[in-house]
Design brief:
Chain A is mainly α and 82 residues long. Chain A contains 3 helices and 1 strand; from the N terminus they run H-H-E-H. Chain A folds into 2 domains: 37 residues; 36 residues. The longest helix of chain A has 33 residues. The chains are: A mainly alpha (82), B mainly alpha (609). The interface between A and B is large, with 41 and 45 residues.
Chain lengths: 82, 609
């Protein structure tokens, strides 16, 4: 049973890596062959979505957690106590 | 041509029959489901031109003003469609509820929202606006917890404030020579625009624009499981409708909307309550619509794209947000737990709920083939057409956060995260699953055939969502969001905390104010009291030592026995304290009767004229 789960997880990760690769490759191919009309300069970068998705996600998590930790998050009975 | 009948009144009048069907369970359920079906047929007949399909109808004359209850055009029809379709799914989700009055308040809530949508003048708008606030209040109170009660009170206080702003705004607008008709206002800031500004304020309170948004995240998660599903759709989206009607192209909305989209995302990171996390994503998604309204300048191609985008996104949002709240409601229903820190590992008990929820999550994140993709990208595209780079980046960034929370963190924390299930669970009742299934199907249908939606939008649509560039960019964003999530997932575990929001500004000072009255102020008054009595005793013994007993006794009696009896504050206080949840239905009846009387009064006045 445990073995089976391990294999499934490995398969899932393999699928993830393949789709990441396909995603970036598709971006490059679209840029090379279809020349879509773009509005902003950064859309010319073939892997812009990948970079923005990754960096944006990290920034959102880190900034929000910092805000919460230092300022906004309080113990659960905050409104009863104050 | 057959006379038009207001779809909202099917719900409003229909609601009053529900309590009469007491004891006949099946009949009652069939009857309640029939109401949205009837309203939908009504809308279809309108779209086919059988009933009046455009223009104004149900015009009442009231105190010399013409009140338009039915203003029918493409814009009001889009919103009417989605409200009626969503109400069917939501009623199906709630059909097993035994409390009649919960059904009644939900039906009145839906009916009054349709009243807002078809309102052609500002008085009619105000009338239905207020009913909407009060009817929705009971859905919160039916959460039946102490915190639901408190949140409900705060909710209605904010909305009463909004209602007063609207009424004051309308009166000042009329006084300044404005028209009663509800069309787009001339926007400006300052003295002569005071009326318009107040109306705008009332609208953005209901749209939950920060910093006026805290009522939403405060109250929605406290509502009953089924009530919360209704709440997600109507108040904020009817606010978007009135903003499109009254303030298209007001540029301050562009920035408010983009900030809103990110604001909700940041707070969702910190949230531990599963429905409050989703509530912050309502704020975030409504941000796209608000930004869309702001870019919707009349008569420009980009403006028409933006308005179409706002309306389309409202349409799609109502559907996928319903699925998400239904899914989390189902978890609360079967486990009785609502905190991320208390949930985990229950996937094997409720896989169907999980997958239906995920359809909602893919939709809100804007995955290609789901409905969020075909509507959200219209607003983003409009920002590109207007050449607003910062807005474009903010809106795209908000999509990252949306997928991160609703699509990854929340399902991960609720259904997986721990190796062993932390509590017992099972699939929810069949009607709940069916409701989720239908709504999720609609999300996918619109994602695959967006033309169904595009055909009913206010302006002709010149937009291809499935351009290869769009699809690839979106896929890249979402895939790499997943990578970042997986690497940082340890940081995203819920923590047993509450997050301060702008409701702090009325919750804490309010409490402090009451404590000041109970403590120092009472001490001060009793100090004065004691000394006055002492002085009175001194004067009495000094100047009137020989007052006869037959004068003194009755006076004594009157002041020291009768008066305190009459003003028995403790007794009154006890009485107020006894108003508890079980008496909710009585309170609801009083309010409904008052509304009915008001309605009859208006009709009477209209007939008299």
């Amino acid at each position: 049973m445990k073995m089976k789960i391990a294999i499934t997880m490995r398969h899932l990760f393999l699928m993830l890596y393949v789709s990441l690769f396909i995603g970036v490759l598709a971006g490059i191919l679209v840029k090379l062959f279809l020349h879509p009309h773009v509005h902003f300069w950064w859309e010319e970068i073939p892997a812009f979505g990948a970079i923005y998705g990754f960096v944006g996600c990290v920034i959102i998590i880190v900034v929000s957690k910092a805000l919460g930790h230092h300022w906004l998050q309080k113990e659960e009975d905050y409104y009863e106590k104050h | 041509m057959i006379e038009w009948f207001h779809p909202g009144f099917i719900f409003l009048f229909g609601a009053f029959l529900v309590p009469l069907l007491k004891g006949k369970k099946r009949l009652k359920q069939a009857y309640i489901l029939l109401l949205p079906a009837l309203a939908f047929v009504n809308l279809l007949l309108m779209s086919k031109g059988v009933l009046l399909s455009e223009g104004k109808t149900w015009v009442l004359s009231f105190l010399g003003y013409g009140l338009t209850l039915g203003r029918i055009d493409r814009l009001s029809m889009v919103f009417a469609y989605v409200f009626v379709i969503a109400s069917f799914c939501m009623i199906l989700y709630a059909i097993h509820i035994k409390e009649n009055w919960q059904h009644v308040s939900a039906l009145i809530y839906v009916g009054s929202t349709l009243g807002v949508v078809f309102a052609g003048d500002l008085f009619t708008l105000f009338f239905f606006w207020e009913i909407m606030a009060w009817a929705s209040l009971f859905l919160i109170w039916y959460g039946k917890t102490k915190s639901a009660f408190g949140a409900g009170f705060r909710y209605i206080m904010v909305h009463s404030f909004g209602g007063v702003c609207l009424l004051a705004g309308v009166l000042i607008h009329l006084h300044n020579g404005g028209s009663l008709a509800f069309d787009s206002f001339t926007w400006g800031i300052g003295g002569e625009y005071l009326g318009v500004n107040l109306i705008f304020l009332a609208f953005i309170i209901n749209a939950a624009v920060p910093p006026l948004h805290a009522w939403l995240a405060d109250a929605y998660p406290e509502a009953s499981v089924t009530g919360a599903v209704f709440l997600t759709a109507f108040t904020t989206k009817s606010a978007i409708y009135v903003l499109i009607r009254g303030f298209p192209g007001v540029d301050i909305l562009i920035w408010l909307g983009a900030i809103m989209a990110l604001y909700g995302v940041v707070f969702a990171v910190l949230e531990n309550d599963i429905r409050r996390l989703l509530a912050y994503h309502i704020i975030s998604q409504v941000g796209y619509m608000v930004a869309g309204v702001g870019m919707g300048v009349f008569g420009t191609a980009a403006g028409e794209m933006a308005i179409n985008g706002a309306a389309a996104h409202a349409f799609c949002h109502i559907l996928y947000k319903a699925v998400l709240f239904m899914g989390m409601g189902a978890v609360i229903e079967v486990t009785g737990r609502s905190k991320l820190t208390e949930l985990g590992g229950i996937y094997k008990y409720m896989p169907i709920t999980f997958w239906l929820y995920m359809i909602g999550a893919f939709s809100i994140s804007g995955f290609p083939l789901f409905n969020g993709f075909v509507s959200k990208t219209m607003v983003v595209h409009a920002s590109a057409m207007w050449d607003y780079p910062t807005i474009w980046l903010m809106l795209e960034g908000a999509s990252i956060g949306t997928f991160l929370h609703t699509g990854l963190k929340l399902p991960w924390g609720v259904w997986f995260a721990s190796d062993k299930p932390v509590c017992e669970a099972r699939e929810p009742p069949k009607n709940m699953l069916a409701a989720m299934g239908i709504t999720a199907f609609l999300c996918t249908l619109l994602g695959v055939y967006p033309q169904i939606l595009y055909n009913i939008l206010p302006y002709p649509v010149d937009y291809v969502p499935y351009a290869p560039g769009h699809v690839v960019a979106m896929c890249q964003i979402l895939l790499f969001t997943f990578v970042a999530f997986w690497l940082l997932r340890a940081m995203l575990h819920g923590t047993p905390t509450v997050t301060l929001d702008t409701d702090w500004f009325y919750r804490i000072p309010g409490k402090k104010g009451i404590r000041f009255c109970e403590g120092p102020l009472m001490d001060f008054t009793s100090f004065i009291d004691r000394n006055v009595m002492r002085m009175a005793g001194f004067f009495k013994s000094a100047f009137f030592p020989l007052v006869p007993k037959f004068v003194e006794n009755p006076l004594d009696n009157a002041f020291h026995v009768r008066l305190p009896e009459l003003l028995n504050f403790e007794k009154i206080h006890d009485k107020i304290k006894k108003i508890k949840v079980r008496e909710l239905s009585y309170n609801l009846i009083y309010i409904l009767l008052a509304m009915l009387l008001l309605l009859l009064f208006i009709l009477f006045m209209a007939v008299m004229e």
